[in-house]
Amino acid sequence: MHRTVMQYNLEWQQQVGAAEETITALQAENVKLQEEATKLEVECQEAHRELQTGFETWKQEREGLETEANEKVQALLSDWKQDRDSMHNQAMQQVQTVLESWNVEKEKLKTETKGQVDNLLELWQQERDRLESELYNQASAASVAEESLKQEAVKIAAFEASTTETKKQLEGQVANLQNDNNVAKSQCTQLKRMVEGLQHQMTSAEREAQQAQLEALAYEDEVMAMRRDQSWMERATHAQQQALSARMVRYQGELKDMAIQSIADTSKEQDQLRHQVGMMSRELNAVQMAAERAESQASMAMSEKRVLEAHLHSVEKTKLSRSKEMEARHRAEMSATRDAAGSIVASLEKRMVATQKVARGLMTQMEKDEMSKVSPQLIGYGPSATPYSMGASVSKPKRVAPKTTPLGDMMKGAMSTYGISESSQPKRQKSPTRKGSPLRREMQELKKMQQSTPGGAASQVRATPAPTARKLSMSGTVDEMIDKSFKWADANIKDMRSGH
């Protein structure tokens, strides 16, 4: 069944809605990522602030410990020096006092009694020994104080070593915190890059949605143009029908030569059109991504292909200028399908090949039917039988190649409609993927059936009609076949308008 513009618009709206939902989801994810990035930045700032605070606290504690240790050492040294000086001064004062008192006593004793000198000397010696022992004890106490000072210095060195170790540990912790800070910064950078990537994806999705809207608008414009072309085709049908009878009377005597020339012209022109389609397919390689979204339209394109094939067969068989209009419609349908999906161009090219083969079969069958029905008097031979059928050795009539043929006019008109120049057409290039296509296999089976079944290609066309097209009976005279083909084409056009 043919798909209407409303269905295409609905599909495009659904695609646009899906794209908008994707954009909304990406925006929500972007907001979440931005919030996470902001949270990580705040955490990084807090960690950096804590690191600075810890470093300042450690520095203050280290300075306080060093100051306290220095103060303790200075206090111990000053106390020891004061004790040593005071003890030395006391000892010297005592010695001086004793010496003074001893001198006084000595003089007194000398003056009073010399007999007591020995006793005084002994007393003096005893006192001297006592003082020396006291001085020795004081020196021992001083040495003990020095040992205690050395022990305190060892303790201070151990404290300084522990302080250095603590400093190293704190420096390691500071380095770890700095590494964590760098890792957090790198994570923030990665999150920012992810946010930028998501923003880029959102921009791409928005561009795709806009492109889809533009394609929908272009498709609507082309549908309106197709409708205008169909109305023009209907107006031109009557005039072409009037010209048909005159052309058929003029070409009946030269039907065989015209068929051969038309087949040759059709082959060349179909090659040119096929090459043009190939050029169009190469130009459409840039929109291969859009073809993936148009896979759902394949069934509609296949039904349209069958309708156009059947219509082109009937028009080429009758050699009417109606073929020009149907070829223009075929080209318009192909252009609309090309804008929707680039992958359909290959199927259109295969359709052209199949059309040429079926046209050749139809031309051959038409030639046989027409030669069997035309009276011998029109050809210029015997009263009841042709010389060719009786085996007479007569000279064949001189072949007069017409300047133009109905099929040639049709193909040239289609080429001029789409701006295709005959001189600009390069040589035909065979498609590498045509050999094993389903359409080629179908045409081979059709050819085999044509060889084994009476009636030729025309009967095969009647046996395998398009699913959406009406049946066309190719029996009777040429005029009857022409009338039937026009009625069949008009009925198909009405069905296509009504959506059947």
What can you tell me about this protein's structure?
It is a single chain. The protein folds into two domains: 202 residues; 228 residues, no CATH class. Helices cover 82% and strands 0% of the residues. The chain is built from 13 helices and no strands. About 13% of the residues have low confidence. Keywords: Coiled coil.
Structure summary:
Helices cover 82% and strands 0% of the residues. It is mainly α and 500 residues long.
Largest sheet: none
Rough outline: rod-shaped
**Spatial extent as radius of gyration:** 58 Å
Structural class: mainly alpha
- Give the termini separation: 6 Å
Order of helices and strands: HHHHHHHHHHHHH
* Quaternary status: single chain
Strand content: under 5%
Q: Estimate nothing, just give the exact number of structural domains.
A: 2
Helix content: over 70%
Number of strands: 0
Provide a count of the helices.
13
Which ranges are low-confidence, i.e. pLDDT below 50, for 5 or more consecutive residues?
375-407, 417-435, 455-469
Mean pLDDT: 67
Biased composition (Basic and acidic residues): 439-448
Region (Disordered): 390-409, 419-480
Keywords: Coiled coil
Coiled coil: 9-50, 92-134, 160-229
Keywords for this structure?
500 residues; mainly alpha
